[in-house]
Structure formats: structure tokens, C-alpha cells
Amino acid sequence: MRxxxxxxxxxxxxxxxxxxxxxWHKAKGDHVEWYxxxxxxxxxxxxxxxxxxFTEDYPYFVDADVIEKGGSGYCISMVDxxxxxxxxxxxxxxxxxxxxxxxxSIYPEETKDTAYGFLTRGCPRNCSFCHVAxxxxxxxxxxxxxxxxxxxxxxxxxxxxxxxxCAEWKDLLQxxxxxxxxxxxxxxxxxxxxxxxxxxxxSKIRTHNIHFxxxxxxxxxxxxxxxxxxxxxxxxxNHNLMVYVLCGDREKRVREEDLYRINWLRKVGYAxxxxxxxxxHLPKGHELRKLQRWVNNPFIFWKCETFEEYxxxxxxx
Length: 317
Prior knowledge:
The chain is of the alpha/beta class. The protein contains 11 helices and 14 strands.
């Protein structure tokens, strides 16, 4: 068979389902290539995958007997600033494709020395701005061992939504420790589930940065001791411990609660990173955008101690 692949989002980040589909078809002896409307000619089947709902669909005619579309981008849409999951449009890969070693050769530059994959799926948090619970369930569960997608690469890009919520977290963290690869927890670590044992195991994993999130000021009495616990068991400096701080989710203004979280994290040795809710609808020059520019530029943030000072310097410039 002649198989075509279309990464609808573009090639800025490897599409894991397409890598698995390619590996499965090549194992069957099929010819696999990136589909080009000008040069590919007629194909037996073309797979189109889209991760992001905001990506426009593929605009060109596809000459194929069968066209199959899949990915979060096709089953999630934005409604009133929130992601809504349409279960009727969701497609899971067949078991034999889901659990095959990915074909990294289709992204030679992006996957050089880097493995991509999931050890767990699902998350118990069910956050209003996240579709994971709707798509994968509210129970974090193991879906693979590391060897399923990693074979001695120097780097591991881990895509798990909440690995610490999985009952088998200890076994999975030990696999990452034993790999001696540098691991990026791309979806972050749930600080609310931190214990001394988890903190010590995480500190044994080679990482460049570890990401956490603090979305709600109201969680401070529970979440602050967890941050302090991890900091006490980590040898990372404050520039390597990043915390996503969601701002603007209730009111389109900078609140005292936002500044409290940012300043508290700096004080105890974390680098806050502001994420703006529904950023596309904030006008240029909005104070929330200014807050983001202050915090997310480390050269400015670590020298300019307060947001008020940053605003004054901006007015004087």
C-alpha cells in the first residue's frame, strides 16, 4: 500500500501518533511518505493528525482512497474561552499501533537523540481549562514501560499529564532514574501530590528544568508546604525550578492574589512563569500582558523586584 502522512499542525513538534502509524505500516512492508498534493500522486490511504484545536484544517485536496483524520485538534473546540471535548469525534489508535516503537526517522532533526512518549494517561484534577480528564479519564493509569518508546536516547520528552497520580509512580520514576537520560516532564509535575519520597526520587532524575503549576491562590495553605518540601529535597537552583502561574482566569486584571503567588515563589526559590487565560482576547498594552513580560523575562524579573517598579521603569523609558 501507498501511505501518506499529513502533520496538520506543521513540523514544529513531532506528532507521536503519526510516528507510530508510520512504524506499523513500514513493518507490514507498506510504502510511507509525507503527503504532498503536487508530488505524491494517488495514495491508498492518508492519515491526517492535528493536536491543536486552533490549527486550521489542511486546505488542499488529498488524492487518496481513504482519508483518516485524528487527534485532539479534531475533537476539541473552543467555546466561550473553554476547551470542549466532543467524544463522538475522538479516535484511539488500535492497540497494535498504540504500543509499537515510534518511527523517529520521519522527524530526523526533531527526534535526534530524543525519545517521545507516555508512561501514563489520565488525570484526576479535571481542570476547567484542560481536556485531559474528558479525553483520557480522571484516573491516572500506566500505559507503557519506558522501553516501549526509548532506546538509549540522551533525552526523553515525557508527555504524561500527571505521572505522580498514577499508582505505579515509584516504578515509573525508577525507570526514568535508571535510564540516566535527561528527562523533560513536558506537562509538568503536580506539586499537590508531592511527598518526601517522591521529591527524593524526582531529584535523582536528570532534568534541565522541572515545571510545576499554581493556578489558584486559594490553594496556598495546602500548596505552599508542598513547594517548600520539594525545595528542601532538591539541589536545583531557582532558575531550574519553574512554576506556571495562571493569571486572568476570573477577571481581566492583575490581582493581589497574582502578585502574592509570584512574589512568594521568588522568595522560596522558584522561577514563576505567567500563563495568561484567554490571552488572544487581551488587547496590546493590557496590564496582564505587562505582568507576563515582567515575570517571564528572567533578565528583568530577577533584577526588578516588584511589578510596580517594572511599570515605573517602563513609563520612564
